[in-house]
Write a structure and sequence with these properties.
α2 links the parallel β1 and β2 (about 75-80). This protein has helices spanning about 5, 55-70, 85-90, 105-115, 155-165, 215-220, 235-240, 255-265, 270-280; strands at about 45-50, 75-80, 95-100, 115-125, 130, 145-150, 170, 185, 190-195, 210-215, 230, 245-250, 285. It is elongated and about 60 Å long. The strands form three sheets. It has a six-stranded mixed beta sheet, sandwiched between helices. A five-stranded mixed beta sheet has the order 9-6-10-5-11. The protein has a two-stranded antiparallel sheet with strand order 7-8. It contains nine helices and 13 strands. The protein has two domains: about 5-125 and about 240-285, Periplasmic binding protein-like II (D-Maltodextrin-Binding Protein, domain 2); about 130-230, Periplasmic binding protein-like II (D-Maltodextrin-Binding Protein, domain 2), CATH 3.40.190.
């Protein structure tokens, strides 16, 4: 995700309360007309085009593809390396759904870009990790050391919360999941927080002392959660605020094919695949 100021992703954050996987929806309310395609009454001979980032989302959808084929649904997976086009393509109807983003980002995108996306299912959570670059440990950080963080608002706040969790900084009271560098109240080591595009951080890891990296990009780069110097607490607010969802345009969430997709994403087969393949980097929430 690119920096929100450059992508017009500013605006109030509204995190909806989600029902369980395969269940209801969550987004800020919309009064826009529901002009998406009318829901199909059957899953027979249906093709679903779903946008996803390569890992882990597209890999998980490959498992889902076989499950849907048994119901007469063809799943076409369209891979993206950015976080913008998959949302605008769902809004325009070019895609039936996407699976790449967490709920906080989706809600903020709706607010800033005027889209009408809702969650059809809560699927998984990807813990953020703090990884070693030029410095091998948190204790070895020198005064003025550089730490790279994602430069989009939702994930920068998440990265700062992890740094606070590890005692490296202290944020202003109440900053929470909207925190920015300006909300750093205490920085005893005078750390240089380097804001980079999330997708670029792994390639710059050797240039900084430490880096906070999105789960999907860490997986792409071959980094394992077990190798991280620190990981988000799974019982903190991050696990709820950053749950990855199956997103559709409002009005499509009750389409039988979409419901079948949601159920397949939340199946025992997918859960086993996540647990066996990603070794804690992808945590099913169903």
């Amino acid at each position: 995700m690119k920096k929100l100021t450059s992508l017009l992703l500013a605006g109030a954050l509204s995190v909806g309360l989600l029902t369980g996987c395969g269940g209801g929806t969550a987004s800020q309310p919309s009064t826009a007309p529901q002009d998406s395609a009318a829901p199909s009454s059957s899953t027979e001979n249906v093709t679903l085009k779903v946008g996803a980032t390569p890992a882990p989302h597209a890999e998980i959808l490959e498992v889902v593809k076989d499950l849907l084929a048994e119901q007469g649904i063809t799943l076409e997976i369209v891979e993206f390396n950015d976080y913008i086009i998959p949302n605008t393509a769902v809004e325009s109807g070019e895609l039936d759904a996407n699976y790449f983003q967490h709920i906080t980002y989706m809600n903020e995108f709706n607010e800033s870009d005027g889209t009408h996306l809702v969650s059809a299912a809560e699927v998984h959570y990807e813990p953020f990790g703090l990884y070693a670059g030029k410095t091998d440990s948190i204790d070895a950080l020198a005064d003025g050391a550089q730490i790279a963080v994602p430069n989009d608002t939702t994930n920068e706040a998440r990265a700062l919360l992890l740094l606070e969790q590890e005692g490296l900084i202290k944020l202003k009271e109440g900053a929470g999941i909207t925190a920015t560098k300006a909300d750093i109240a205490e920085n005893p080591k005078n750390l240089d927080i380097v804001e980079l595009e999330a997708a670029q951080i792994t390639s710059r890891l050797a240039d900084v002392d430490l880096a906070v990296i999105n789960g999907n990009y860490a997986i792409d780069a071959g980094l394992k959660v077990a190798d991280a110097l620190a990981v988000e607490s799974a019982d903190g607010e991050a696990a709820t605020a950053y749950v990855n969802v199956l997103a559709v345009k409002e009005g499509r969430e009750n389409d039988p094919a979409i419901q079948a997709l949601a159920e397949a994403l939340c199946s025992d087969e997918v859960k086993a695949f996540m647990e066996e393949t990603y070794e804690g980097a992808v945590v099913p929430v169903f």
